[in-house]
Amino acid sequence: MGAPILSCVSKGVPGIFMDCHMMVAEPEKWVDDIADAGGALYCFHLEATTDPLSLITSIRKRSMKAGVAISPDTPSTAITDEIANAADMLLVMTVYPGRGGQKFLERCVPKVADLRARFPEKDIEVDGGVGPSTVDVCAHADI
């Protein structure tokens, strides 16, 4: 979905909180479009930008919350204290971005536990392959 669809949703459901997970190259290019369409949270992939802190600042200037996602092969340590403290939410991909129907990668769960231990007050999400058989391991990743 892109900004035109988000705009229609925003008009049809006033006040909706749209958490926009941007699986795009050069996420800096899309901040204004998503903000104008009513996006409330703009989550970008750490691997897709060279300057995450400037991107977070741009997102905030457009009155959106900022989320930072990491792909399965990116270590949780790539999210530094500075990045995590600037972001509102951290997202751990538990499948590879852009390919539907993939199996949940349980090897990504320790990243959730690490982020929770390092940033206990931060919102942490997982994305990909989560269902009845995997939701429990995600929910208890910090135990």
TrEMBL record:
Give the lineage: Eukaryota, Fungi, Dikarya, Basidiomycota, Agaricomycotina
Q: Which domain of life is it from?
A: Eukaryota
Quaternary structure (record): Homodimer.
Q: Which cofactor does it need?
A: Zn(2+); Mn(2+); Fe(2+)
Which pathway is this protein engaged in? Answer: Carbohydrate degradation; pentose phosphate pathway; D-xylulose 5-phosphate from D-ribulose 5-phosphate (non-oxidative stage): step 1/1
Q: Where is the signal peptide?
A: none
Keyword Manganese in the entry? The reply is: yes
Per UniProt, the keywords (alphabetical) are: Carbohydrate metabolism, Cobalt, Iron, Isomerase, Manganese, Metal-binding, Zinc
Q: Which family does it belong to?
A: Belongs to the ribulose-phosphate 3-epimerase family.
Q: Which Enzyme Commission numbers does its entry carry?
A: 5.1.3.1
Function statement: Catalyzes the reversible epimerization of D-ribulose 5-phosphate to D-xylulose 5-phosphate.
Molecular function GO labels = D-ribulose-phosphate 3-epimerase activity; metal ion binding
Q: Which SUPFAM superfamilies match?
A: Ribulose-phoshate binding barrel
Gene Ontology BP annotations: carbohydrate derivative metabolic process; carbohydrate metabolic process; generation of precursor metabolites and energy; nicotinamide nucleotide metabolic process; purine nucleotide metabolic process
Q: What does it catalyze?
A: D-ribulose 5-phosphate = D-xylulose 5-phosphate
What is the protein's name according to its record?
A: Ribulose-phosphate 3-epimerase
Q: Which Pfam families match?
A: Ribul_P_3_epim
